[in-house]
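ok so for the tutorial part 2 we go from a plain amino acid sequence to predicted structure tokens. step 1 is just haveing the sequence, like this:
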Amino acid sequence: MKMKRILSVFLMFCLAFTALSLPLSAGATDTPTEVVITFVGDEADKAGFAQSVITIVPGDGAALDGYYTVYYTDGKETLKDYDELAWVKITDGSSVTCTVKDGAMIPAGAKGIAVFESAKHFNDTTPSIKNAVATAVIPESKRLPDLGKLEFSFGALSDTHMNYEPYDRGAYAKLGAAMDFFAEQGMERVVITGDATGDRGESPDLEAQYEKHIEIINASDYPIAKVYESIGNHGNTPADIALLDKYLGGSDEVHPYANSPYFHVLVKGESGERDNLFIFMAQELTAPGTSSTVDNFSKTQIDWLESLLNQYGSSNTNIFIAEHSPFLNYGAGDRKNGGYTALVTFKTEYTQTMRLKALLEKYKDVIVMSGHTHVSLYDDVNYSDEYNAFARTVHIGSSCQPCGYGTTSVYTRSTDGRYTVSPTYGSEGYTVEIYSDYIVYTGYNFSTGKKIPAACLLIPVKAYGGAGNPNLPADPDDVFEGSGTAADPYIIGSADDFMAFTAGFNASISTVESEMYGYGKYFLQTADIDMTNYYGYAGTEANGNAKAFFAGVYNGDGHTLTVNINGTNQRSVFPYVYGTVANLRIKGSITSEVSAQPVRTLYGSIINCIFDVDVYSNDLSNGIIYSNYGFVYNVFTEGTLSATTVNPVASNDTSTDYSNVFYDRMNASGTALTDAHGTNSSNLTTIASAFNSKTHAKYSTALSKLGGFELVPVLVRNGKLVFDVEIPEQPDPDPDPDPDPDPDPDPDPDPDPDPDPDPDPDVTVVGDVNLDGKTDQYDYILVKRHYFGTRYLTDDEMLRGDVNKDDTVNQYDYILIKRIYFGTYTA
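step 2 — the prediction. this is what the tokens look like for a chain of 827 residues:
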């Protein structure tokens, strides 16, 4: 994914490489391990924002197993009060990448990064830079700027769970230590987002838990009058809520009615400073999202919230909402298609919850803080704004039992994988500092006093407000590489890109063509993309209240998109397609409650696509489309369909415009299924021949809908119909030389030959890989992708891309091409 102003990103990439003093001559020996940090995202060219891709290229003698760990440095030494920024498994000497997510902040004083080889993915003690295997400089333009005067601050905790004390988790001592820490840091308020205690019937009983809670806070150095708590899923009966009000009610809490479980606190700013509004919501279901008839919130509570947002949302006020449970597959805190239970679920049956969703899409300036899952801050599910389509969400770990996600249970591994939670270890939370332009969340491991880089967040104040339709997605010009034309399409080259693409066409609710996402624009997938473990990806929801329209041309270019979608309502990869989806293979699985299918509704075209995807639903499963009103050409779908009603091709259908549509579908029992649309066939050779034919009557129609893109041919490989570019031919790493090379191809050359009066255009412009007469960013992109293995160069392109003439195309060539482009190197 790239960024507005592509030039700035190339410059940063160039600066990072320049700092490495790379050997650029042919025949270099003892190549060192190298690291490059490439800043990406909406803030790629803005100071202080850390979202990036870190690429590590092993050198001679590099470790073949273990882990690379990455730490911030001040240019001379690692920052001792920070744990690792990122880590990645070493893969047998191959280049590897790790990511720093959206929202992450470059710490004050950080001037570079250092990479270490380690037997584990962490170090008990921050390593010294003298043991680093590679370093890189963070450009001065990206370092954290002076944030100015501190206007306000507060501490943030969640899930303090006084009921955990009998289970040897140190709940009492850890809460006391956290409150002492907030006092030492000078935090002006403390916010706890729920589950301060447990439930009735426990030992100690609930009132004793509240009494102990208050006793611990009073024994600390922090004044209890400045501690505020929202209601979580534990202790939320009317009798429990009365106890919270009895022990913790504050004089500046404003309740909409006497003893209401939800309230707000307004902290007025000093002259010229912003006010800060804290809204404390109440968990009204013990297990939200588990009922199809009971809403997660009462109408009274959402009416109250809406009135507050309408009153303060356009004023000079920072707004924080404390809501205990995160949102299922939406925002920070949840992970991997609903890895935790009892989350707030956006379902059309939940009228008030859908009102909440609409409010948070409208008031994107709001920061929602959640807890509930106990997920550790090291697990890096700490921040999301749904690619500018939603409020900013921040997840808070537990002060007494932070946990990590496992494969079968949320509690499979505790804390960050370093230790088991004990009475003295495993406690996390935030300090929050508010400045005129930024809000800074600093995540702490209270057990060690270390800061957690993944949980150090830099959030712009009022970053996404403004007039106009608040639900329109970010302009793809601001998100993707490319300009969106057929000749220069937007590039979808990674899971991050596809997530941003999905967020784009999920954000729009307009039926006006010009406001549909990507209207008249072209998108090109440049690599196979795997979304199966991508945080927050759960496909797209399509129903009467959440329509989403894609109106561009998406060209998969023969690549595969792998999904493992598991969500509510109606789930698809593409919800509403008014444009064209072409040359794409989708494989994996889609699971949903009401209906599941690769494409929900088609008004445009599906051309030259393969759907090798299993589809599961309680109600309706479709092999290709739920509702078709468009054009379908060259499509094959195979795999299992499981639901009350199954359709190998389509369900609700008014179109008869199917050509070369084939299916080989079976139900969960293995019985072959039939459909009135398309041809039931498992003869892949025949299907491939039909796909590749250029004599079909609809072939020219299909081409005309692609805007200049070609149909990628298919073939049969290992019993599957695939595109013939799906597995690029790997270059021979050590090709055999000519067994009998001519040592002197011209034994009697002219000592002063005349130059060729019409030189070969292939070699006239050094580095002009794509033969457009100049050396520019497009040549750099081609060489970079060849080096990272996402698109290999042809022999002729290799010749033009080998700038330093060492008979290979690698990172040194794309450095030189960038320098040629920027005028810092003359070939």
